[in-house]
Design brief:
Blueprint lengths: L5 H36 L3 H15 L1 H9 L4 H11 L4 H19 L3 H32 L4 H55 L8
């Protein structure tokens, strides 16, 4: 396989490799951006709700609302929405659900694209491999004296695109699963903490203020 060089690989597979390179750049950009966004959004919702409840009980709703408005964390935004929502428990729970959905929708930006990249990158690489093998056998047919060394070199060059497709897909899949899990856990934490705040505002089966 003396003819198998990096230059040959690029010359033979550059259309597919270019697509995979663009997908890789896109994937890495989303992973870095979402990692930073989730890091900024992550807060101790339980500590925050305890502070809100303490402010509510000692200084009243306005003080609790002021405390929430000092932060733009998803938990604080949801607590503030519940505090200003008039009505009973059901109205506040609906507000909580809408607020959490809106906050999580912002955090989910780009994550479906990671799932798409993880799904299609191996197939794009496989497409490059199939095209490379077709070219390799076409070259062998045109030069019948090439022998097994020529076959091996051609197939090795073709398989490079499959390897590159997997290298693009694996980080994208890991990022997708990690972010989906972290967003789901964050939403559940905020929901449980907000339920505790609602319980303090309106005890279960209690009177509507």
């Amino acid at each position: 396989m003396g003819g198998f060089t990096l230059l040959d690989m690029l010359e033979q597979g550059w259309p597919i490799l270019s697509v995979l390179l663009l997908l890789s750049i896109w994937s890495i950009t989303i992973i870095v951006d979402r990692w930073m966004a989730l890091r900024r959004a992550k807060g101790d919702a339980w500590r925050m709700v305890r502070n809100v409840i303490r402010s509510l009980e000692t200084a009243g709703p306005n003080a609790a609302l002021d405390y929430c408005e000092k932060s733009r964390l998803p938990a604080a935004v949801t607590f503030a929405a519940v505090l200003v929502q008039p009505g009973g428990r059901e109205a506040r729970e609906r507000t909580m659900e809408r607020s959490i959905q809106m906050q999580m929708r912002g955090l989910e930006w780009g994550i479906p694209a990671l799932g798409t990249i993880a799904s299609i990158a191996p197939f794009i690489g496989l497409l490059g491999t199939v095209m490379g093998i077709i070219k390799a056998f076409a070259g062998i047919a045109a030069n019948a004296g090439g022998g097994t060394e020529a076959v091996a070199a051609g197939i090795a060059e073709a398989l490079v695109t499959t390897a590159c497709g997997l290298l693009v897909a694996i980080p994208a899949l890991v990022g997708y699963n990690t972010f989906v899990h972290r967003i789901r856990a964050l939403a559940q934490e905020i929901e449980l903490a907000t339920e505790e705040l609602i319980d303090r505002l309106i005890p279960p089966d209690g009177p509507t203020p």
